[in-house]
């Protein structure tokens, strides 16, 4: 080979790789609170990066690499809206995803509906995203709060507990989680009473007094929605003061590693919770994901955020593949009843409310090797627990 | 009865950490007059260091040494902050230092994330104090009893330090009269450093001592700071016994709030604070401030003149460029500029009362968010056309300012600031908690402009006209008799009263005008974003505006606008980076040190010194 | 002849201390009256009660026959009382002329006007007043950079802005050079003569007092101990006692008489 052809060839190759990466990648705008809520955002981002790498190693989507543009909004809805505009109009993103906080998710969703951008809300817990404030452009991956609360209510109804106390952070998610639990439990067991409702300010719990107040009401069982630092303090004070002795406790999200891990050997035992028992998988796609994750990040164990991040990318890739294009109308059509293979099995983005059928693991907490784990867990398909189609249609604004 | 006693004990135990942190802040404020926002960050660092040390040092001895060592380390960190960041800016206008402490918060947040990682840490439990004691049948944690026992000793120790030692006498002298310390021949800067050490160490101790009841996480810095402010204000700024009484009051009240008013725990604290301030304007143990102690210090403001011909041409040229932006730039530039203009208007409205009137508000977000919410509520509940809802924003914010202003103007200085803060927190908690109406944390969404304004272009022009119009209006008012009267009340209230000017009425008017224009900015904001959430009413939002006014130059007319523009652009750039908070914090600290008169003020001085600009006539 | 200012039985306590005791006096139209007394005698406290900066503990103040006790300073000012302070309180961030314009805007009730620019309002009138006190050449300097004596003259110009019938001047020449003092007092005397204004002033410098005051009152420990013409006061036993320590009254008398 002459020098000339070598140069020409390498120049061509260089040009090809450059252009294929620069011009051809499919960009997805990912907005999150990487700093403000680092504890949740970091595993989520790692899940995204893992899936992104897997997909790109396998040739990308539509023969183009998938590229996530990560941007920090510092947890402010106003900033998120601005960044969303930038990602869509300047960076050339084909759709948006991201946010953990419900309010940021709702703000982006509102923008998406107004401007016709597609937004996949992966993590936010507010059901308003797909119901009261839903719009055709907004999709939601994560299991709805309503369903998770219903799963716990179903279990609670099986016991003979009548007097319930609830404790939930005093903001929209907490209120919704308590309302859903009450609604479902009353439906299954009309004689239950709610004897105490505690509403600590988010991340400002005064755990000692909360525990005293609940104890004073002498409930048979407790429904817990607190998480993060609030949960730590609540569990510690509650265990210390014997609040959980001889009482059934139902914990929303309490079994998620994000919340259970920091509790270490103080993790409560015998609570019935929703969560993510990654350590219990022995085979199948769920186990494959755990292995891949731990191979990619040897110092880490997967969190629920990692799984959600991973499933977000899989969903977007599936939508792109189905659409065969990156144009919004095609993508929008593709998301309609989109089927995605995920570590949790196949999920569907339901045409009726744009909510995915990602389910939830429920189980009982226990201590193993000085760490909190979920035992006797099972995977629950959310569909039977969702409100009826008529109820959902009534909730969603007319299109 | 048993429960009642147990509840009181819980309250007393909770008061321990709060008292430590609050007494530190109170000391620092009393002596240096610095409102140290970074105090919560020191508390957070205390918790992280505490955990690290407790995990290394064994046993009960290790546990308690870890607490003391954390205090020591945080005290030293406080000294570093004082020497590197605050000392260079002591001569700057009063309250300017709070900008620097804001930078420190950002830096510490990122450093803590780098060092300790993102995961929440559960605090180790105190060896030997891991169970409960039954008192009248109720379980009371042993560690709670230990805290209850320790706190009075700390109070006594501080009391002894302040009243019986030489350094304490100096501290008291400085708290009461700053000039006196200079007269006593004391090296003021070392006194300040010493006080910073002590105050920071107390914050560190507070962070470490609460570990067995909680842990360490990256949000605890901002989560504690508002309660600490409330305690310091209720107790009286600078008073250690005040901080103690107020910590106990707030903690015990909170325990009963949790038991009997579980939904309203958010507001309770601020209601108490507002009531205390209205009945005892200087807090329970505070001392009346001498006039002129706040707001105006350092060299006086310069006389002002409306912009001359060149200035007007420059502004016209800038506006022409802004008007042409849509022609030669992409739509995101307009989105970004829309944000910047709105923030500039918000900052300008604060600057009107803050710079021109010397009225330092810590709660200006109430009017920005209040206006935005007013418009959004109209749209959500009565399908009001956007045009009318938009006009309602400044109106509602103005009315709110008239109402709150009536109370606030009765106070002055830092107590005025704190009452504005209390009111803004009341509005915030109303928006947050009144779920049925405001949607709580989920806010109000789908608040978009009318058809004719719905494109990015159209809304950009709308914002440009309204926003710039608002800024020009404020500037005009500054040069009008009302603005002069306002400056008069700031420069010398006595003289103003003695020449027929109703000082309180002028201040009230200015407060209301500033509120209305903040509401106008809020109206622009809500329709540009399409949604509104309680975070636009948060303390952080108020401080955003405060910080850019100081950063731009509190003793200038355009400081707020320039500072706001600078900050928005800096944020837009820096948030793309991994450690953007660290960098932004350092940038802020850098600007503060390089430009102690703010960006505009310092540019003016520098350009005069190097001859680029003539010294103004009146300064000769 | 009706008194411009009539004060009867004025008392003021600060905690347990009585700073002003049962003070009663009158100021006649066109009168230049001095209130003298050692430091801490209660002169400033008296002034503060006359113009409403302090409410009296008891007693009454009448201006042109109307009671003004306890009214806020701004009301009393509107009724035609001008005042200068022992420690000046001019607006530091404004120019000399603007300080006077500010008072004029208030006098003409244009404070809440939003047009025109304040610096243009009543500029001529302000310059005329500054001319009177000899400050016209400094009209456009910032107050913050003025010498103290100039500030005192500026205060006088401001005090004249509302065409007062009564001027209260608390130590108008404090901090001035001796020559300047004489000039300022001469100026005040001229104003009294030309405009028919009544002036009540306190003063340390006895030269100034004896040279210009029509009447002199002596305050000691809050009590009026003497009142009369210069000679009467000088020969008063009690006054001699009070001033024996300081001695200045009599030294000065010796050199001048
Ligand atoms: N605000 C105040 N509080 C307490 N004492 C005061 C106050 N103002 C003045 N005094 C006291 O009243 C007395 C008279 O003071 P003042 O009227 O200033 O005297 P003068 O002007 O004659 O020098 C002094 O003893 C002074 O200490
Ligand atoms: Mg005096």
Q: How far do the termini of chain B sit from each other?
A: 75 Å
Count of strand segments of chain C: 10
Average pLDDT rating of chain C: 87
Number of domains of chain C: 2
Reported CATH architecture of the largest domain in chain B:
Orthogonal Bundle
Strand content of chain B: under 5%
Mean pLDDT of chain B: 89
Largest sheet of chain C: 6 strands, mixed
Bound molecules: adenosine-5'-diphosphate, magnesium ion
Shape of chain C: globular
Count of alpha/pi helices of chain B: 25
Give, in spatial order, the strands making up the sheet with the most strands of chain C: 6-7-8-3-9-10
Strand order of the largest sheet of chain B: 1-4
State the CATH topology of the largest domain in chain B.
Answer: ABC transporter involved in vitamin B12 uptake, BtuC
At a glance:
The complex is a heterotrimer of chains A (399), B (620) and C (257). By secondary structure, chain A is an alpha/beta fold.
What keywords describe this structure?
heterotrimer, A: 399 residues, alpha/beta, Rossmann fold, seven-stranded mixed beta sheet, 43% helix, C: 257 residues, 2 domains, six-stranded mixed beta sheet, four-stranded antiparallel beta sheet, 10 helices, 10 strands, 23% strand, globular, binds adenosine-5'-diphosphate, binds magnesium ion
Describe what you observe in this structure.
The complex is a heterotrimer of chains A (399), B (620) and C (257). With 399 residues, chain A is of the alpha/beta class. Chain A has helices at residues 3-22, 38-57, 77-89, 102-115, 145-157, 172-188, 207-216, 228-240, 257-260, 284-296, 304-323, 328-335, 389-395, and strands spanning 26-32, 66-72, 95-98, 119-121, 138-140, 163-167, 193-198, 221-224, 248-255, 272-275, 339-342, 345-348, 360-368, 371-380. Chain A is built from 13 helices and 14 strands. In chain A, helix 6 (172-188) links the parallel strand 6 (163-167) and strand 7 (193-198). In chain A, helix 2 packs across helix 11 (304-323), helix 5 packs parallel to helix 6 (172-188) and helix 11 (304-323) crosses helix 12 (328-335). Chain B is globular. Chain C has two domains: 1-80 and 164-225, Rossmann fold; 91-163, no CATH class. In chain C, strands 6-7-8-3-9-10 form a six-stranded mixed β-sheet, with helices on both faces. Chains B and C meet through helix 18, helix 19 and helix 20 of B and helix 2 and helix 3 of C.
